[in-house]
């Protein structure tokens, strides 16, 4: 929505100047009396620009006393700048319910000044009075202003489909063989009021043999508010200490880490920073600088700094310009794997073994965070005449994470004499982030006893462990000074029944050279009880310039093998790529393997073409294999079909109106890509992350500046495997005229008004004003419901239907009502 901005500003200037010259506003016309002495006669300033911290905010009215002090109504302050202030300051202003003088606001850190020449009321908010802003190491994001909220469609269908054809020709010693291979992969899902029915089906053909299977068929219902998921069908029960993976057919309800309320968030540091000046903030982990920020004045909350596992000492150093440095110290475990104090993780499942439906299985698991650095859990499983129980614990300590689990199994096949067995697992993990003057350290050790983590299903015998074993590993990495590269050393070993069964060690050096060249040298050795000693040594070079072209070369220094690979983007939009690689072993007269591939996004389809050659000199065979793969996602919602590349678990269906058939439409995703399309055919935008806000602006980049579309910005909170539909059309070029009157029928003369959505959010750069007879006009109104809030503290509703003709609309007389304390009009 836009107004004739220059015309409005000139009108405001004339009206305000007339009010200042007349100076005839009296205290009798003021609905609220100030509680402080009035200096001289009051004058009304009906139309002025409100500028908050140097940025234009809106148009307001206020009073001036005899000493040219601006007097501001408390409800106006809350409405206009409440979003900038701390909640406790907003509450204090709410309690006044009167006009407020600038000196009263100074105690809260709010400075008010008025420039009569430019009709500008400026408000500056001190950093200590500002609402807290989150300071995090995560990705930045911003809201698309005035985004229309789009709901998820109650019913939609999505089908991910992939077809692959891989014919091969084998040149053997005795005869040549042609082997045709083909595979069709289908992943349909149906969304209905929050429930999702899914399947994973595959049909394959090879050498005159057909095979079909359904790997997954289930019904899912997510509960993002509590981070939980309910599933019915073919599932794998979640257990922790027992670490089983038996697939069952049944029901399961569990905490889902990928949902907003799920497990997996690091324990946050919550420390408030109030900066009166520009400052540099450094975060130190165990005495080493880990993060640096350069911040403007304001209030900040430092959070989500997942730096290392274990219990760490954190020091936050604050260096403000011209002020003595200060420090804050925090001691807290930074580990996403450990539940926070009082937080629960859980899962319960009931069903039958997928390979033996006559074998019922049930399992349950629960874990809880205790204190700031401890987690304990319990597991239980029953089925196949076996009862299995387990306990687990995980603790963050100054020397890393220490955990363990113990399991007790009881076999009731012989009910007269049940057999019991005990097994256990212990582990230790240490990981320290690489800091400025300290290397990156990693170490781990694990002990697993015989029989631990044996599933109860029909395939349990394949997982039996007959012996105990230990594994050890460690890594040290250091960045050299003066950009001389990085050095790393790694070693691991495995002990079975007290004897070493294998060990390995390696070292590497990597350096970055000019022109995006990365060179590496690595060497190492491995020993196993079966194969003996095997040394390794190689060099490699990788060139990756900014244009996404990549060249890779590696040379085996011991076996003299060589490999070379190249990847090149082609096409103007970078939607196509070429890839080629070859390898040649030492002593061979030909290539060991070669590959050539081409990949492109053609419309809504991902297409991959390739060919591969491989040889085996010992067996005397050569094989040539071709590859053709086409994949896409098909979607149906609100009677519309569309295609897209099959990425993500939520989609946006954009339906342009016929009037946009010749226009290019751009969808600019906040902190994401730009999606462009031509014509009036629906387009399916993929890659949306379920249960996380998706914000985007929609524009016609090649049209005239005065042509607008609706909606111009959107905000979606997509559900899992859902589709949100947006119909894009030309914005209605409507001029609305009306007469604003109060409750007694008297016209509202020479007042300014701003537009708000029904939910109370203000529409940027919108506004109107009444003339001396109370008439007002609004320009560029789009269909919808609005509220106009007038500068005298009243409001009126306005609704333009989708069926209204474009042009001039006279809505007649609209009656205003006072705005209540919540910011809306009284009903």
Give a brief outline of the structure.
With 827 residues, the protein is mainly β. A hairpin with a 2-residue loop joins strand 1 and strand 2.
Helix and strand arrangement:
Elements: H1 5-22, E1 43-52, E2 55-64, E3 70-73, H2 74-81, H3 87-96, E4 99-100, H4 102-106, E5 110-115, E6 120-125, E7 133-135, E8 148-150, E9 155-165, E10 168-171, E11 176-179, E12 181-192, E13 195-206, E14 209-223, E15 228-235, E16 248-255, E17 271-275, E18 279-285, E19 288-295, E20 298-302, E21 311-320, E22 326-333, E23 344-353, E24 356-370, E25 374-383, E26 386-397, E27 400-411, E28 419-432, E29 440-448, E30 469-479, E31 486-496, E32 499-513, E33 517-528, E34 532-543, E35 550-556, E36 562-570, E37 576-584, E38 593-602, E39 605-616, E40 621-637, E41 640-644, E42 650-656, E43 664-669, E44 674-678, E45 683-685, E46 694-699, E47 709-710, E48 713-716, E49 722-730, E50 734-741, E51 752-756, E52 768-769, E53 775-781, E54 784-790, E55 794-800, E56 807-815, E57 817-818
Parallel strand pairs: 1-6, 7-20, 8-48, 42-49, 50-56
Antiparallel strand pairs: 1-2, 2-3, 3-4, 5-6, 9-12, 9-40, 10-11, 10-40, 12-13, 13-14, 14-15, 15-16, 16-23, 17-20, 18-19, 18-21, 21-22, 23-24, 24-25, 25-26, 26-27, 27-28, 28-29, 29-30, 30-31, 31-32, 32-33, 33-34, 34-35, 35-36, 36-37, 37-38, 38-39, 39-40, 40-41, 42-45, 43-44, 43-46, 46-48, 47-49, ...
Helix pairs in contact: 2-3
